[in-house]
Specification:
With about 675 residues, the protein is of the alpha/beta class. The protein has 23 helices and 24 strands. α8 runs parallel beside α11.
């Protein structure tokens, strides 16, 4: 919300009332306020950009910052002081309160949640607005959003009624009542006015309100789609909705409606498909933003891109892919592997592939068409023409995504400055089309100097890193830069499973201790990948799974080797695995018995010593009675008396490295 515009609007309301004939004998002239404004400019010259017209309208070109708020406060305070000097402070307050009650009530709806701005207003405006906000807040749990939607519905229905008699919408309402109880308390009267019984809606949950409101609005848009076409219907609906909800995104977010209205077009950010990354970016990739993705070639990059496309296309976005290292058929195969249907998407105009690969093996003149794909010759200007055609062919969508993979291959053919200028023009083109874009660059494909220059072009940079550590791949994704957003730069470790990027989950030692998985005196590191048991003769690794999906699941390592007789220790283990159920992974229910025989020295009558054998009771791990965690802790405490144990608790497994103690 633009606070300076809101402040200026309130001053306009105030001056309009104070110069209106209805104010009575204390009516002021507009020239009086111009004199006061001129005096305020002596201490705040920025007010030269704030002027009054003869019909009491405000021309407000002030910047939206604290300095402008301070300047407007000085002007408003001087105006109030002047009126108070004429008629007295108490009477001035009464006149302002009585004459501006309705105006301040309407303004309070836009200022809800802007407590800092409300407090900046001089008295009596600060108190009057605060009282109006509190009164509005207590009137109904859902009244604010219902009133806004009612205005949106009414405006859209009025436009819709010029094309149809709305009988189809009335029929649709009757159908929706069977799915949503709240819609039973909505009527479209003879004057085509939509009436909502707010008292009946007041006790409903947020989710019930969200689903009912979204269902009605989307039904209206769906009806107008048949009359106007999808593109025109969505454009009209978006204009109406944004007019009434200007500066009120928090209400939609509070009801979690951003993705439920107009195919998510009101949500100004595009999800990457990785929740943890979206959270660090404060919601996802902003519309119109261009990001540079620096990544090694491989499955990590491919899955990130396909996941981004899948999430966007499934939520109504349109997408363009500019490829240079693989033919369009490979891209289509990648999309199919993620349950997308490229043929249908291309037929409907929601996907366009720009092919800058085929010129290496074919003779292409200018720009040629291959089905829905557009092939470009080697020349960058022709590639630009192909991209322009692709943009024009994309069907209307409020959210658009482009994936561009040309930087590395292009710099191997052309001078860096030529590629740099082309990328700049391309980035500006996408921004003009309000299209979020990801430009791909292979790790270490450019010199540090070139890469540094290239970073200046983009709104942000994402890094995918892949390295080998202890014989395993370590993968991370991080945000290096992101303009205009207070982002979290900490990398997100991830692994790959079922063609998906799965972020590792951080679990604190305190959380695990509360669940009984670890004792306080053990220090452990969280990882997601499960390590296999070692076969080294002097140490055995036991992996105890802590996955919450499978109750009591304990995966043990191999049988501990036979311990030498002289140490007098015998450890037996057994393992039992139940048959897997069809609907989920196999459940492992172990029966692990630990029998320990410990030697003890005893003096003979002749003064010599001999070893005595003392047996300890068996300990049953995973018995069907009792809590597995408690039994596990009891077993570990017993083992600690006999063996040196190093423990490593990953996100999937507890790893115990067991070393036999030497008997002295």
């Amino acid at each position: 919300m633009n606070k300076v515009k809101a402040y200026g609007k309130m001053i306009e309301m105030f001056i309009t009332k104070m110069t209106s004939p209805e104010i009575g004998q204390f009516r002021l002239e507009i020239s009086t306020f111009r004199i006061i404004l001129e005096r305020a400019r002596t201490s705040h010259p920025s007010l030269i950009k704030f002027t009054l017209t003869d019909d009491c309208k405000i021309v407000n070109n002030l910047k939206d910052n604290e300095g402008s708020i301070e300047a407007l406060t000085v002007f408003l305070q001087k105006s109030i002081d002047f009126i108070s000097s004429l008629i007295g402070e108490d009477m001035a307050r009464d006149i302002i309160a009585s004459s501006m009650k309705e105006d301040l009530t309407r303004l309070s709806e836009k200022l809800r949640g802007e407590s800092d701005l409300v407090r900046s207003f001089p008295e009596p405006f600060s108190t009057l607005l605060t009282d109006a906000i509190e009164l509005k807040k207590g009137s109904s749990d859902h009244e604010e959003i219902l009133e806004l939607f009612q205005e949106v519905y009414q405006a859209y229905l009025k436009d819709l009624s010029t094309h149809t008699d709305l009988s189809a919408f009335k029929l649709k309402l009757s159908i929706l009542r069977e799915k949503h109880d709240l819609i039973k308390y909505v009527e479209l009267n003879k004057a085509n006015y939509l009436e909502i019984d707010k008292e009946r809606w007041a006790s409903a949950t947020k989710n019930e309100v969200k689903e009912a409101l979204a269902a009605m609005f989307n039904s209206m848009v769906g009806l107008s789609t048949f009359l106007l076409g999808k593109e025109e219907a969505l454009k009209k609906a978006t204009r109406v909705f944004q007019y009434y909800f200007d500066g009120k995104d928090r209400i939609l977010e509070n009801y979690d409606m951003m993705n439920d209205i107009l195919e998510g077009s009101l949500y100004k950010k595009i999800s990457t498909g990785i929740g943890e990354l979206d959270s660090k970016m404060r919601g996802g990739i902003p519309n119109g933003a261009s990001l540079l993705l620096i990544s090694p070639s491989g499955i990590e990059r491919d899955l990130f891109i396909s996941g981004l496309l899948k999430n966007g296309l499934n939520n109504g976005s349109s997408a363009m892919m500019v490829v240079s290292k693989e033919p369009p058929r490979t891209i289509r195969m990648l999309l199919r592997s993620n349950d997308l249907h490229p043929d249908d998407l291309e037929d409907s105009g929601r996907l366009r592939i720009i092919d800058w690969f085929s010129w290496r093996g074919e003779r292409i003149i200018g720009v040629e068409r291959d089905g829905h794909a557009l092939k470009s010759s080697k020349i960058l200007s022709n590639l630009g023409i192909a991209i322009n055609k692709g943009l024009r062919e994309l069907t209307f969508s409020s959210n658009k995504i482009s994936i561009v993979h040309i930087i590395g291959p292009a710099t191997n053919i052309f001078e860096f400055n030529e590629v740099y200028n082309f990328v700049q023009r391309l980035r500006a083109k996408f921004k003009d089309n309000d299209m979020a874009s990801i430009f791909i660059l292979e790790t270490d494909s450019l010199s540090k100097e070139m890469e540094s220059r290239l970073l200046e072009v983009f709104d942000g940079t994402l890094i995918i890193d892949k390295s080998m550590e202890d014989g395993k791949f370590k993968r991370e994704i991080a945000i290096r830069s992101l303009s205009g957003i207070d982002f979290d730069a900490n990398p997100i470790p991830f692994f790959i499973r079922d063609n998906l990027i799965i972020p590792e989950i951080t679990i604190t030692e305190e959380d695990l201790h509360k669940k009984g998985h670890i004792s306080k005196n053990k220090k452990r590191t969280m990882k997601k990948d499960t390590r296999q048991p070692s076969t080294h003769k002097d140490e055995e690794i036991i992996i105890l799974s802590t996955r919450s999906r499978v109750k009591d699941e304990i995966v043990t390592g191999p049988k501990i080797g036979k311990i030498p007789e002289e140490e007098k220790k015998v450890i037996n283990k057994k393992r039992k695995i139940t048959k897997p159920k069809k609907e989920g992974p196999p459940t492992v229910k172990p029966i692990v018995k630990l029998k320990v025989k410990r030697g003890k020295m005893k003096k003979k009558d002749d003064g010599t010593q001999e070893k005595m054998k003392k047996s300890m009771d068996s300990i049953d791990l995973g018995s069907h009675e009792g809590t597995p965690e408690d039994i596990l802790k009891e077993a570990i405490d017993t083992i600690n008396d006999l063996l040196d144990i190093e423990t490593d608790l990953t996100k999937d497994a507890v790893t115990l490295k067991v070393h036999r103690k030497k008997i002295k």
